[in-house]
Structures are given as C-alpha cells and as structure tokens.
Amino acid sequence: xxxxxxxxxASEIAPLIKTGGLADVAAALPVALAAEGVDTTTLVPxxxxxLAALPEARPICDLGHYFGGPARLxxxxxxxxxxxxxxxxxxxxxxxxxxxxFHGADYPDNHLRFAALARLACMIAQGLLPDYAPDILHAxxxxxxxxxxxxxxxxxxxxxxxTVLTIHNLAFQGKFEKNILGDIGLPPESFSIHGVEFYGGVxxxxxxxxxxxxxxxxxxxxxxxxxxxxxxxxxxxxxRARAAHVVGILNGVDAKTWDPFTDARIPVHYxxxxxxxxxxxxxxxxQAFDLxxxxxxxxxxxxxxxxxxxxxxxxxEALPEIMRSGVQIAxxxxxxxxxxxxxxxxxxxxxxxxxxxxxxDENASHLVQAGADVxxxxxxxxPCGLTQLYALRYGAVPVVARVGGLQDTIIDANEMALEAxxxxxxxxxxxxxxxxxxxxxxxxxxxxxxARWRRLQSNGMKTxxxxxxxxxxxxxxxxxxxxxxxxx
Length: 488
Fold this sequence. Notes:
Blueprint: E1 4-9, H1 21-34, E2 38-45, H2 48-53, E3 58-66, E4 69-78, E5 81-87, H3 89-92, H4 110-125, E6 136-140, H5 141-144, H6 146-152, E7 163-167, E8 175-176, E9 197-198, E10 201-203, H7 204-211, E11 214-217, H8 220-225, H9 236-241, E12 246-248, H10 278-288, E13 298-306, H11 312-322, E14 327-335, H12 337-349, E15 354-358, H13 362-371, E16 374-377, H14 387-394, E17 397-401, H15 404-409, H16 415-420, E18 426-428, H17 433-447, H18 450-462, H19 468-486
Parallel strand pairs: 1-2, 1-6, 2-5, 6-7, 7-11, 11-12, 13-14, 13-16, 14-15, 16-17, 17-18
Antiparallel strand pairs: 3-4, 4-5, 8-10, 9-10
C-alpha cells in the first residue's frame, strides 16, 4: 500500500502551544497515522512561543507582503512532528494568548490571522512548494475551516486535493461581519447561503461545513447531536443536509504521555497489577491541594475549563449536599472569572475538604488523575472529551454527563454492567444538580465495596483509548476520498 501525504492545518499543537484538547489531537494523530501509511505535515501559526521552541526552523518560502505585512513559510521538526510555520509577526506576535488578550477579549483581526493560515494551506496544496504536494488536506476547527472554501473558489484548473474538516467544538464558529470578505480574499459571489454567508455575516466554520469533502466530529454521539436544534448552534440544518458526508470518529490519547507506569509527572508509578501503590499518589494530591490527609476520603478530581459548557456551576450548586457526606474535592481549572472566584470562596468555606488551583498546570493535571478516586465531568455538551480518557488510563473512575463523547467512552456501572464485569464509570442524565448528585452517590456506594471498585478501576485501565483505531479510520477515510477524486 503506497504512503499518502497529508497537510494538516491547526491553530495550536502540543507541546508548542495549547489551550485545550485540539492541541493534543493535532500532536498525537500524525504520529498514529504514520503507522497507517500516512505522512503528515502540520501547518501552524508562528506565535512567539512556537518560534522560540523551534530555533532550527528554516525559511522555505518568502510570502512577501501577506495579509498586511511581511511573512515567510518555515519548516521545522519537533517531537517527531513535521511542521510548516507561518511566520507573520504582524498577525501572531501578541501580548496575550493565541486567540485573545489577557482579559479574554478576542483580537479584532482574528479573521485575518486565521484566513491567512487557511489561504496558505490552499497555496501549498496548489503547488507553492515545488517538492511538496499533499494528497489530502485536513483542517481542524473554525480557525482552519476556510481551507475548503479557498479551494472551492480557486481558479479553474487549480490543483484541489480532497479536504477533511474536523469539528472539535461546534460552539466556536468564527463569525465575522460581512465587510471582511474582501480583506480575506474571497470573491463577492461567495457571500451567499450556499457559500460563506451565515446569518448576514461571514462564518468560517459554516464555510468549511459547506465545502469540505468530508466532515468529522470527535465522537459518534456528537455527530448525531449536532444535527439537532439543541446542539446544532444554528448549523443543524446545513449539517443535516450534508449528513451523508458527516462521520464521528472518537479521539484517542497519547498512550506514552498518559501512562501511570512511566509518568514522570506523578510521585509513584503503578499499573493494574500494582493498583495498591496508587494510594500514595492520593496522599500526594491531598497534600498538594491542602486537603486533609485521609486515605478513606472519597476524593473527587476535576480538571477543566471553568465555563457554562463544562457544567461546573452545577458542582458549586451541589456543594452543600455533597460536603455533608465526607467528600473531598481537588479542582484545577481556569476560565470564567465568576466561577474562579466562587470556587476559591468554596475552598475557604470548606478548608481541608476543597482544594482549588486556578490556572493550568500540567504536573498538577497528571497528579489529579493519578490520585483522585473519581474524576467528574458534568459537561452540558462535550464533543469528545479527553480528560475522562486520561482518567480511565489512571484508574480514576469517571463520573460523566450522558452527552457526546462522554456517553461513547464510559460504560455506566448499572447493576447489569457491574454483574457482567464490563462497567468503567458512571453516567448521569439529564445534566442537572440532582442527577449529578445521584451519580456521585452511586459511585460512593460502589467505592465502599473495594472488590467492585478495584474491578471498575481495572476495567478502565485496560480499555484501549489510544489513537490506534481512530488513526486507522482516518487513514481509511483519506484513502477513500483519494480514490473517489481519482475516479477509482
């Protein structure tokens, strides 16, 4: 089987720049695809932290005056990844994060910053580089979603490889005013309901959904959910019209990075055969989060963006009931300032019972997974979720809302599943305070039965949540599209 070449386009990639799960996927999928005969090069923006981490990056193309300033295309390698980097200081050198300033406000020129990235991918696909011609383009989320649109509106006869657009979270769509159309280099005729127009403006994600050859989401359940008015975010009609081109492929995790037997970020290593050693990480977690040293406490771990989507306001509302039963909580996260403040206040109100760290700390994230008894994910919607997959690997039993990828990845510990020995966690629905409390109560009841609890942990740890099967499915999808384009 001949190898194929894929150009991936992403606004972030671990370990260079990360705000969420997209970065982990962008980094792990190319490595897994290599075993399936797919060679991937990923095009990313030249943020300062990216350029600083790639001192050996070499210029391969001068783009001249590009989207408002001088720009170059660089090539580099990092952690086994092949990269193209768009070096454009006028677009990417900023004081804040990749998408907005320190106060959380989006940069006003985000339409230019990410249109430039997508346009460059199109130029590469059409032959910008004499020695590189990708067989397929894979765009991730709204920041790269103009790639299929640029190819669609390219001049007649231009090279156009097949395109895949992956939706990591439909809530983030890249919506801008109509007057940006000329600035991003799309023709006037593109502004139509069958083009990039979206409720009177320009929709980056809408454009990708309109023109991509195949649309993937990061779980089968989410693929179905986004075709409903409840989860479709205004795009459900288009998604239903293109349903034959939509497929859900579960995310995986980097099984080497997230392995409790070798993880350098946790105090004590363990595996299924040595689960008893895990209690030492629980003690370390309690110490790190200023919790009372209590080996018998039922310790709930949370690592999350603090937002309405993630349902952490439900946890706040449930605290008076939860804390009556001797529970401890270790929470690591950042996001909504009101939620941050409320959780810090909760930690003050329940000293030794609730520990809160605001911000993101990779070491602390691994420690929560390695030390918590359960890992809580009460999301109102969740395209896939990675933290519950990490929890399975680390023996932190997931308690999750029955939505999206959470319901696809966790087998609920109902009586039948417990008796059959296949359960891996606890699901709850609807996503309400009462349902969440009931799920935590079920979990604590099983926690009291050490043999059953150990079986739950073991089931989770032996679940294959690697990229092996997802990568196989992506490679199969790529080849199918290439065969269709070639008329084979």
